[in-house]
Design goal:
The complex is a heterotrimer of chains A (420), B (344) and C (489). Chain A has 420 residues and is mostly beta strands. Helix content of chain A is 15%, strand content 41%. The two termini of chain A are 23 Å apart. The longest helix of chain B has 58 residues. Chain B starts with 7 loop residues before the first helix and ends in a 7-residue tail after the last helix. In chain C, α4 runs antiparallel to α6. By secondary structure, chain C is of the alpha+beta class. The longest helix of chain C is centred in the first third of the chain and has 63 residues. The chains are: A mainly beta (420), B mainly alpha (344), C alpha+beta (489).
């Protein structure tokens, strides 16, 4: 039983409400901050053991500040493709300029002119796995192998042609009216020209990315047989020959390469720029219909990166000037057991704490993790009206505590006056 | 999903798309209405253009033949007139000869025959349309030489060669009847056969002219100075005028005049035959002309059927198109006003 | 989360509405552009508000049909243009300007001359008509060469345009691929690419093959690649001047000749196909017809030597009609229509004699037909009659002329005039037909992909309502917030 205890309890109550007002102030202040997670105060009572019956010593109130990290904000759409949001659970892995890794949901990344990294408004760079050489192999519970997403190394890149297809129809009734250029036939070793019925060309790229146009002359050898001869258009050198045999239904049956023998219809190799291109003939037909040979091949010429494109599975593509794209990075999505217990740091970032559980690295859309949404930002999950209500509430409670304090004080004064 | 959607562009263009075509059609209809022919014959007929050209070619050929036939007719009628003149002359000499007493005949016809001989020469040298009528194919040369030029000397020479003296020699009276007959049938007649005639008298070609008088017919359309009746006539005139029969014995005189009478008769008959032959040609030309006139009319009709159009139909088509164009204009202007914005 | 969420939703709704309105405005602006396709703004509602994706109305089948009709029409129009020029050599049958009419006039004059061989007026008229005939053949041949020359130039221009368009197509295709890769709005790029394809289809018939990533490969209708990741070269060596028998160069696409006789993959449609058909087909056939006429004339009027055996090396020499004044009878017909001329020995103006028309002997007295001595027998009609009957004889004409077989010169010339008119009639019919097809295809395409301004206006009204509602919502939330703030104050 202590009047002083009452005064202390009043002060403790007022202190607790000050904390609450503080969180409200911070929440209201950050109601427009991307990826900001609302802070809330929870109170618990501290009781003083009374000992004897009939007496009561008032205790105090303890304040715990909690972050509503799991509570998602609204994903507001923006016009920047590098504005990212995670639609669901998980965090982006970012690092500060010193190279320390953090988690964040603030995905307002912008390409940094100096470094080429994608940096958010708090100065953290987006991390991802470089997958240009192969698929990403994440280390499950560490940030090892993660590097800043940066398109500079993809600036100029050529891809040599590795495979191509020949599809369509060779008109079975076509006659040979043209003549191929004169060249050394690699099959016979002597210079020869051949009659041909149809011709097409395919654009391929050598390992330096230089264009190599392959002229393909098709000779109707009669009896459901065709011969395809491949020349380099630049110097008319004959590169390969394939005898195509069609069955009575006009479907391709056998492919023979002179000097090599029968090969699979999916594997005719043509040496281009020191590298062999494998051509697939399996969809070719020789029917009495219109000629409609359509050939295509992969590979691409060197060109500048025009933009980065963020896919929903976290893959970052380098989009080139010629419209082609290359998968460059894979942005992981990290999570912890108890996100609400993450340790908040300045700049809307979090670090793992003992209570949050260990870091788990996964990929967007997999294992219950959210998808990466490009052109979208996660707004703050603060609702101003709720905060204002909390503020009014805190004010009221603060006033009540101050009344308790002043009442205790008056009682003390009465006690002091007794002595006079 | 819009089930019935039309774009504004399609809507606004709809009355306009056909307009250019309509206007072209209108121009065509107007032209056809005025001309009565297809506006673009080549386009309307296609390969039928060939038929049109063929029909025109036939018409042109017929026109050419008709023009040619005019010349032919002129030549024929002038030739006929000349032949008639010759024949009449022969007849008149004959009748005056027959009407004269046998003893006086030789003296009576000497001068007449001389005159007629030069008249005959003149007749044979007659030209028409820049062409000597009796020259045959050698039409640009005067066919007959004057008797006095060459033939007279030849006659005189033949007489001298036969009898050994000239015609005005007093010994002529002593020529016997038989001698004279032999001379007339021999050396004298030789001067008037085909070769002698051409050598002494005529430069005409014996080839008479043939002409195409219609697309299918040809006809002989002239005669020449080398024909037998003409030669006989000339022989008769020379015999009568230049043998000097008046100085001969009465028997010989009678022989000569009898021969002249016979020859004149034969010449006259021959000339009539030639006239008849040419008359047939004249009739053929006339018939051909009549036929070709009919043919021209037929061809013209055919051509009109081929290339012509019904003017009435063309004009009414033009009117219809005009109406269509007006409707189209009307629709366009109405569509212009039709926009939802105007009603808000 | 109350008011903040509501405010956010209202805001995104506002954005979506304004985006849709802007698409409507774009549509309205493009309403009169035939190659503009209607843009469709689709609202995708997410967990928190709406985003708008823009695609365009398109119909690949109709577009392909439109391209096809465009190519076919361009081909037929090019052919018709040339045929119309060629028909001028025939003209209206009434004007008698055609070689056939000149042959008729010449034959008639020959007949008249044969009827009155001694008539110099008729002989002069015959010579004039012969000159007319040779002149009309010369002019017709010159017209043919002009047409071929113009076609050649037009092919050159067309090839230039194709190369330009392919370069533009490369850029447009790249823009589409880039846009597709970055997920942007490619509808305008697609419109642009389609516009280029439509222009390209005027020059050459094309088919397209869609590839991954928005890429498009373009082939000619005969299967030669025009654009497949990169533009193929289209080359053409223009021929500066066309003389008799000049063979024009072939258009080469990707190293393959696509026009001309030896082409393994000849173009089927497009302006180039029509021009090539005109230059190498119709005009060449017509020229060979004219040449055949000229050859027949030269041979029919040849003079034969009358000198006693052994005959001279050239028993026959050119008569009234010569191969550009040469005495020899030409071995072949090629180019004769250009070179046929009147023998100067028959023309008094060049020191010749009209009498040689009647008697022969333009090549000296050995070649004289009239047996009578020179200067006599002026009404000799033997040669004229013989010439006339020879002119009316049946000759054999090569099938390469397009109207081969046995025919008289007159009937061949007439058939030639008919042939060119028939070609023109056919071409006109085809142009009409293809125009109708193109109108239908364009109409169908426009009806499917075009803009209806009324529809857009109505849509904008609807969007206006939506916008107003969202704005209203924001103002209500604002009011609520004020109430709350007042409560605090």
């Amino acid at each position: 039983m202590s009047l002083l205890g009452v005064l202390r309890t009043g002060v403790s109550g007022m202190g607790a409400q000050t904390n609450r007002i503080s969180t409200v102030a911070e929440n209201v202040q950050n109601s427009g901050t991307t990826g900001y997670k609302r802070a809330s105060t929870e109170f618990s009572s501290l009781l003083v053991d009374g000992g004897a019956t009939g007496t009561y010593n008032s205790g105090a109130v303890e304040t715990t500040v909690r972050r509503a990290v799991t509570e998602g904000g609204v994903n507001a759409s923006t016009t920047s493709a590098s504005d990212l949001a995670i639609d669901g659970k998980g965090f982006f892995v970012v690092q500060d300029p010193a190279g320390v890794s953090f988690l964040t949901r603030a995905g307002n990344f912008v390409k940094d002119g100096e470094t080429g990294n994608y940096v958010n408004s708090a100065g953290f760079s987006l991390l991802g796995y470089d997958i240009s050489a192969g698929a990403a192999v994440p280390t499950l519970n560490s940030t090892d192998g993660l590097v800043p997403v940066n398109m500079s190394k993809f600036a100029m890149q050529a891809t040599a042609t590795k495979a191509g297809t020949f599809g369509g129809n060779l008109d079975a009734s076509a006659t040979n009216t043209g003549t191929t250029p004169s060249a050394i036939d690699p099959a016979t070793g002597s210079t020869a020209t051949y009659p041909y019925a149809k011709k097409t060309s395919i654009l391929t790229y050598d390992p330096q990315g230089a264009k190599v146009t392959l002229d393909v002359y098709l000779t109707n050898s009669g009896g459901n047989n065709w011969t395809a001869r491949v020349y380099n258009a630049a110097n008319n050198a004959q590169l390969a020959t394939a005898n195509l045999g069609f069955d009575t239904n006009g479907q391709i049956a056998t492919v023979t390469v002179p000097g090599v023998g029968t090969t699979a219809v999916r594997n005719i190799t043509v040496p281009v720029g020191g590298q062999a291109i494998s051509f697939d003939f399996s969809t070719l037909t020789s029917l009495a219909g219109d000629y409609s040979l359509k050939a295509s091949a992969d590979g691409k010429a060197p060109s500048a990166v025009k933009a980065a494109q963020f896919d929903s599975d976290g893959t970052v593509y380098a989009v080139y000037d010629d419209g082609s794209r290359v998968a460059a990075f894979k942005v992981p999505v990290a999570n912890v057991e108890s996100p609400d217990n993450l340790d908040p740091k300045a700049g809307n970032v979090y670090t793992t704490s003992t209570t949050s559980g260990d870091l788990q690295i996964g990929f967007a859309g997999a294992g219950g993790l959210g998808k990466v949404k490009s052109g979208s930002l996660e707004s703050s999950n603060v609702d101003v009206s709720t905060e204002l209500t909390a503020m009014i509430e805190a004010q009221t409670v603060y006033t009540a505590n101050s009344k308790v304090f002043s009442t205790g004080n008056e009682l003390l004064e009465i006690l002091m006056n007794l002595k006079r | 999903m819009q089930t019935s959607f039309i774009s504004t562009l399609s809507l606004w263009n709809s009355p306009r798309t056909g307009l250019a075509k309509l206007q072209t059609e209108l121009a065509k209809a107007n032209q056809e209405g005025v001309n009565g022919r297809h506006a673009d014959v080549g386009l309307a007929l296609g390969s039928g253009v060939g038929l049109g050209i063929a029909l025109r070619r036939e018409m042109e050929e017929i026109d050419g033949l008709k023009a040619d036939n005019g010349l032919v007719s002129l030549r024929l009628s002038t030739t006929q007139a000349s032949l008639q003149e010759m024949q009449k002359a022969a007849d008149s000499v004959l009748s005056s000869l027959v009407g004269t007493a046998p003893g006086k005949r030789a003296a009576a016809i000497k001068e007449i025959a001389a005159t007629q001989l030069s008249a005959l020469t003149a007749s044979l040298n007659k030209a028409s349309g820049g062409q000597y009528l009796f020259a045959g194919t050698n039409a640009q040369q005067e066919p007959m030489a004057d008797y006095a030029d060459a033939a007279k000397a030849k006659v005189a020479k033949a007489f001298e060669d036969t009898f050994g003296f000239t015609r005005d020699d007093p010994r002529a009276a002593s020529i016997g009847e038989a001698d004279m007959a032999a001379f007339l049938d021999g050396a004298f007649a030789k001067l008037f056969d085909a070769d002698g005639w051409k050598a002494n008298w005529s430069s005409a070609s014996s080839q008479s002219l043939t002409s195409r008088i219609s697309t299918t017919e040809t006809a002989t359309t002239s005669t020449t100075a080398n024909i037998e009746p003409v030669r006989i006539l000339a022989m008769a005139y020379v015999m009568a005028s230049d043998l000097g029969a008046t100085g001969m014995s009465g028997e010989v005189q009678t022989l000569v005049t009898d021969r002249v009478i016979a020859l004149l008769g034969k010449a006259s008959d021959g000339l009539v035959d030639v006239q008849a032959g040419l008359g047939r040609s004249q009739a053929m030309v006339t018939a051909a002309n009549t036929r070709m006139n009919a043919q021209t009319a037929l061809l013209a009709t055919q051509l009109n059927d081929l290339e012509g159009v019904d003017q009435q139909a063309a004009i009414s088509r033009g009117q219809l198109i005009q109406q269509q164009i007006q409707v189209s204009y009307n629709l366009t202007s109405q569509l212009r006003q039709l926009s939802l914005v105007n009603y808000l | 989360m109350g008011l903040s969420l509501a405010l956010n939703t209202a805001r995104s709704s506002l954005l979506a509405s304004s985006t849709q309105i802007s698409v409507s405005a774009r549509n309205t602006a493009g309403a009169t552009d035939a190659s503009y396709s209607r843009k469709i703004a689709t609202v995708i509602s997410g967990g928190s508000g709406a985003t708008v994706s823009v695609r365009r109305a398109s119909d690949d089948a109709l577009f392909a049909r439109m391209l096809d009709a465009t190519s076919s029409l361009a081909s037929r129009e090019a052919l018709l243009g040339g045929l119309t020029s060629l028909q001028q050599t025939v003209g209206d049958p009434d004007d008698a300007t055609s070689p056939a009419a000149k042959v008729a006039a010449f034959t008639t004059a020959l007949q008249s001359a044969a009827n009155a061989p001694d008539n110099t007026d008729l002989a002069r008229s015959l010579l004039d008509k012969a000159g007319d005939l040779a002149g009309s053949l010369n002019r017709a041949a010159a017209a043919v060469q002009t047409v071929r020359q113009e076609a050649d130039t037009a092919i050159r221009d067309s090839v230039g345009r194709i190369n330009d368009l392919l370069a533009q197509f490369d850029l447009a295709n790249r823009a589409v691929m880039k846009g597709t890769a970055t997920g942007g709005d490619v509808s305008d790029d697609l419109d642009n690419r389609d516009r280029i394809l439509a222009k390209l289809s005027e020059e050459v018939g094309i088919t397209t093959v869609a590839r991954t990533g928005g890429d498009l490969a373009v082939y000619t209708d005969s299967g030669v690649p025009l654009f497949d990741r990169a533009a193929r070269t289209v080359t053409f060596a223009a021929t500066a001047t066309y003389g008799a028998g000049t063979v024009g160069g072939a258009v080469m696409i990707d190293g393959v000749a696509v026009t001309g006789k030896g082409s393994p993959m000849p173009l089927q449609s497009g302006r180039i196909a029509g021009l090539a058909e005109l230059r190498d087909g119709v005009a060449a056939s017509y020229e060979s017809q004219l040449d055949a006429m000229a050859g027949t004339l030269i041979r029919a009027f040849a003079e034969t030597s009358k000198s006693p055996p052994p005959p001279p090396a050239d028993p026959q020499r050119a008569g009234l009609f010569t191969n550009a004044g040469a005495t020899a009878i030409p071995a072949g017909d090629a180019g004769l229509a250009t070179r046929i001329s009147i023998n100067s020995a028959a023309d008094p103006q060049t020191g010749g004699s009209l009498a040689t028309l009647r008697d022969g002997g333009m090549n000296g007295t050995d070649y004289r037909s009239n047996p009578a001595p020179v200067g006599s027998d002026s009404a000799y009609s033997g040669r004229l009659d013989a010439l006339l009957s020879k002119l009316k004889e049946n000759g054999t004409y090569a099938t390469a002329t397009g109207i081969g077989g046995s025919a008289t010169l007159q009937s061949f010339a007439t058939a030639s005039a008919g042939w060119i008119a028939a070609q023109r009639k056919t071409a006109t019919g085809e142009v009409d037909y293809q125009t109708t097809l193109l109108t239908q295809a364009s109409g169908a395409l426009s009806a499917t992909t075009g803009v209806n301004t009324d529809d857009e206006t109505a849509r904008t009204l609807q969007l206006q309502q939506s916008y107003t509602a969202s704005a209203k919502l924001i103002s209500v939330i604002d009011d609520l917030m004020k109430i709350l703030l007042n409560a605090v104050g």
